[in-house]
Design a protein that fits this description.
This protein has 396 residues and is α/β, with parallel strands linked by helices. The protein has 14 helices and 15 strands. Strands 1, 2, 3, 4, 5, 6, 7, 8 and 9 form a 9-stranded mixed β-sheet that branches. β7 and β8 form a beta hairpin. α7 runs antiparallel to α8 and α8 packs across α9. The longest helix is centred in the last third of the chain and has 19 residues. It binds adenosine-5'-triphosphate (ATP) and magnesium ion.
Length: 396
Amino acid sequence: MRYDAFLIKYAEIGIKGKNRHVFEDMLVSRINNAIHPLSGSFHIRKTSGRIYVLPEGEYDTDEIISALQKVFGIAAICPVVQVKDEGFEKLKADVVAFVDAAFVEKNFSFKVMCRRTRKNYPLDSMEMAADLGEALLDAFPELTVNVHEPDEFIYVEVRDTEINIYSEGVAGPGGMPVGSNGTSMLLLSGGIDSPVAGWMCAKRGVALEAVYFHAPPYTSDRAKQKVVDLARIVSAYSGRIKLHVVNFTDIQLAIYEKCPHEELTIIMRRYMMRIAEILARRDGCQALITGESIGQVASQTVQSLMCTNEVCELPVFRPLIAFDKMDIVEISKKIGAYETSIQPFEDCCTIFVAKHPVTKPRLDVIKRSEARLGQEIDEMVEKAIEEAEIIEVFPE
Ligand code: ATP
Ligand code: MG
């Protein structure tokens, strides 16, 4: 079946009062970015609280839907069939044809909802709904009517020049349009957690930059490529990501040489946060994002998180903080990152990891150890920032 339009329903951005149009315009722009690379040409129309994607010429319905399912801010995508008013008998046949094409299994309960913006239509909305419902029951005996809690609504809207027929359609990803809530710097490692953390913040409208710390030759180019690949997977949802690749080798070696080995990870994490914050401020990001989760490893006990957090003044978003690993893995699979995340390339933390890391670090002790790094460490930090490689990552 050929659909004439895709009606975009959005939920949360509808409650933004005076700012509503800003959110709507942003959503239109994100939709534009998502469908631009597809085959076919499209036109987007925004009218009274509704956005329509209107294909012109050939297009692929599945392709459009799966592209729109990555656009945060969309609650549902409803493929719409538009027909001319050629009498009610013809409309009945059109509605039956719509249900036939839109649903593979015809064993659900439904309610027909009719609206007329053109009031001179010969039937009123109640009569239309009753008669169309009957036509559907005749055509598909396994359907049932349920006016209170139907599985599916079938909408029929008589407008001035055409009649729209559509159903609830398919669910969108929810959330808010990316860019409607500032920009944050994601600390992106090659693991399972940080891509999920970035995706979750993007879902709330946060645009992303990312920083990856690598330690050549202790970490390979493959490990770095894996991070670029993960950034690309996240960018399918968040849009373009500016990825900063920071060479962390000298800093890591200095810490390894001068600080107690059981404190290595904490001190290293503090330097990552410091550098991430400097990069974030330089690019106008308002917050940092990490994939940390309470108790997952020694460096993520509450005491460790307190020590890591202490170096930052910007807010640090840790959307996974109270998630179990299982639940993180589930999201990772859903967004298509898991298979890449589990590729076995060492990240810079595993090389320098101590046998018995502290799990209850004391801030005063950590600070005293850091003092041993002297002034040279500041120079190393400066150099690492200056020489950071920047990779612009675009969705595929
Ligand atoms: P992940 O699965 O995201 O790698 P993890 O369980 O391995 O997390 P840690 O290695 O303790 O946890 O790192 C905690 C968080 O610190 C990560 O989620 C990430 O945000 C950040 N991080 C760790 N290593 C790096 C790195 N090499 N580059 C950038 N960020 C990092
Ligand atoms: Mg990691």
